[in-house]
Amino acid sequence: MDLAGAAALTGARLEGQSGWTFDRVVPVDQAGRGRLGFLGDRRYLKHLDSSSAEALLVSESLSASVRDRVPNLLIAGRPRLALARLLDRLHPPERAFPGIHPTAVLGKGVRLGRDVRIDAYAVLEEDVEVGDRAHIGAHVSVGAGSSIGADSRLHPHVVLYPGTRLGRRVVLHAGTVVGSDGFGFVMSEGGHEKIRQVGGCIIGDDVEMGAHCCVDRGSIGDTVIGAGTKTDNLVHVAHNVNVGDHSLLIAQVGISGSTTLGKGVVMAGQSGATGHLDIGDGARVAVQTGVIRDVPAGTSVVGFPGRPRAEFWKSMAAMRRLPALRERVKELEERLSALEGKDE
Q1: Does the reported pTM lie above 0.85?
Q2: Domain identity same for 186 and 276
Q3: Considering only CA atoms, which of 127, 81, 118, 113 is closest in space to residue 100?
Q4: What is the DSSP code string of 53-119?
Q5: Are residues 305 and 199 in the same domain?
Q6: Within a 10 A sphere around the Cβ of 313, how many other Cβ atoms?
Q7: 136: which of 41, 118, 300, 310 fits an S-S bond (Cβ 3.0–4.6 Å)?
Q8: What is the CATH number of the domain that holds 20?
Q9: Is 173 among the residues known to form the active site?
């Protein structure tokens, strides 16, 4: 690809030689002949000193800092979006040729769309429905009555429990489990008695889930992951949770039962929410934050318990002053004690 084509594809502004060609986009310190460097964050400017970069994809805000150092620039207002489009063009997904591996097991009443691929040792139980061009990876297990939308991809060792419903273009990475029993028990005379989990599990269109995620089926209602939502690896969504469209759940997020997330919610790594909460549209939950009460739409919460960002940092500033305050109180106590001794 040449820079002129890259500019047309991404909407970036080209400065330099339109005919300069490349076949890879790489970090700025690995850039050189035939390799377009990516510089979207000021923290990586230092790597330019040791780089052989001949061309960069750079953010608008950083272009002035590199213009005199690199002869060819693609200047983008949204460099990560430009990067995504370049990578799609340079590294298109491998085409999955349709077919059913002879070791795959298909139960009674399975319905397959056109150009489906089913890899080795996959098991599809009775009455499973698979949409056009879906790809079922090796050792995938699909429970009875489940449905998988067109153009979806299930990577190896994914498990769908019976009755799970996947929308179109869903991607589930290796080891993810969808539709397993929620954690429901009640104490009885004989110990912990299980509450049967009889609800459903519905995954919307264009959802992508990382490796080893777990989404529990509802207890008596449904667990729902909204369209366009993306999850990182090792995310747990409990029974009856409803995640709004286009939300992001980063690594090791845990959401307890019957909590509702609005549209466009972001929960950062290792954050969590207790059950029966409402987290509003566009809310942001910071790394390792513990949410134990409702979060209004558009609010950013930090810490444990999760609280608005400004409030959190005020409390942190106060805590940093505690050692000095403690010494001041000790000094005042000593002076007061000395004064009381004189009065006696």
Answers
A1: yes
A2: yes
A3: 118
A4: -SEEEEEGGGHHHHTTT-SEEEEESSHHHHHHHHHHHHSPPPP---EE-TT-EE-TT-EE-TT-EE-
A5: yes
A6: 13
A7: 118
A8: 3.40.1390.10
A9: no
Given pLDDT bands bounded at 50, 70 and 90, which one contains residue 102? very high
For 150-197, give the secondary structure using H, E and C: CCCEECCCCEECCCCEECCCCEECCCCEEEECCCCEEEECCEEEECCC
Q: Does a structural domain hold residue 222? A: yes
Structure tokens at 211: 């490796």
Q: Which of 135, 155, 239, 246 does the annotation list as catalytic? A: 239
Cα 330 to Cα 324: distance, rounded to the nearest angstrom = 10
φ and ψ at 160, to 5 degrees?
Answer: -110, 120
Lowest mean pLDDT across 40-54, 183-197, 222-236, 330-344:
330-344
Cα separation, 57 vs 76, whole angstroms: 7
Domain identity same for 270 and 329: no
**What CA–CA distance (Å, rounded) separates 268 from 313?**
18
Residue 344: pLDDT band with limits 50, 70, 90: low
Q: Are 275 and 329 found together in one domain?
A: no
User: 252 falls in which pLDDT band (50, 70, 90)?
Assistant: very high
Distance separating alpha carbons of residues 126 and 54, to the nearest angstrom: 58
| Domain span including residue 324 | 319-343
Domain count along the chain = 3
- What is the share, in percent, of the chain residues with pLDDT greater than 90? 88
